[in-house]
Each structure stands twice: as structure tokens, then as C-alpha cells.
Design goal:
Layout lengths: L2 H29 L35 E11 L5 E7 L4 E14 L5 E9 L6 E6 L2 E6 L3 E14 L2 E8 L6 E13 L2
Antiparallel strand pairs: 1-9, 2-8, 3-7, 3-9, 4-5, 4-8, 6-7
Length: 189
Amino acid sequence: MTTQSRHSVAKIIAVSALALAAFGTLQRTSQAGPPPQDMNVVNTPSVRVVNGPANAVFTQDAALGQTPFQAQVNALFEPGNNAAFAGIEVPAGKRLVIENVSVLAALNNGTALRYAAVVTLDQAGGSEAEHYLVMNPQGSVPGIADYFSANHALRAYAVGVVQVRAFRTDSVGFGQLNVTVTGSLVDAS
């Protein structure tokens, strides 16, 4: 081994030793943290709740007066028409609290939905509110249909009729939307 090679090897060993020493120091200092300290809390307030018949706390079951509700309706696309409509009746004197809407649509191959919505009235004679549904493609069966679906958790209120409205990109052939609405009925007053 030449003198120059020995000096190079010695330099490499020296640099490696320095790097290892520096790394060990960094590792020890990064693991060390400030020592834990005791804390004292002073002036802690005391809380006392006293309830008797004169000042009772009234509670109510959150589901009291609610009746579970679910309904399914089919909105049909007729040949020559790009729109489909259907309605779900809300019983008289009741308000429907909608909690979920799910949809499955089957359309002619190559046809897509422009939009689908559930339309509600929150009070008799009130204005409509459209709740738009995001339809997701589910695949195609050649010669049969293209499929779309939606499933939305929402909070909407309806009296009278919950309307379903859907529009497709063309008016060729048949198609349909199966819409399921679930929630609960409460008194409309």
C-alpha cells in the first residue's frame, strides 16, 4: 500500500470517527428533555347541584313523539321525455324529518343523468327546497342499461309531498330511478 493510500484510509477513518461521535451526541441530546415538574392548582371551584321537587330538571326522550318512516318510489323516464317525476306522500298533520335518501338509476346505454333532486316543503304554503343528489356511475351492462347510484345522509323537513325530480341527457328509450327516503314523522304543529 502506498503512502498516499495510507493517508487516504487514515482520513476516511478519522472523518468516520468524528461523524459517529457527532451522531451519538445528537442522539443523546434529542432524547433528553426537560425534567418533569410538579404543578399545583389553587382556588379550585366547587360545584354543587341540588335538585328537589321545587327546582326539578325536566328531561324528555329525544325520540318521544317520533314515528319511524321509510318509503320507496319509482320515477320513470318515458321514450321522448328527458324528465322523470314521482312523489312520496307525507301523512296529513305530520312533518317528515328526512335522514337519508338513496337512489338507484338504470338508463339506456350511453345516457347519463343531468341531475336528480329531492324537493321538500318545510311548511304548508312555504317555498320549495331542492336537495341535489350526487349520482355516481356504477357500471354498464351492454344492451341493458347504465347504472348510477347515490346515498346521502341529510337533514331535511317536509310536509305534503316529497317530490323526486330527475333529468337525463337524452330522451331515447325507457329509464327509471328507484328512490328510498328514510327518517321519522313528528307532529307538524
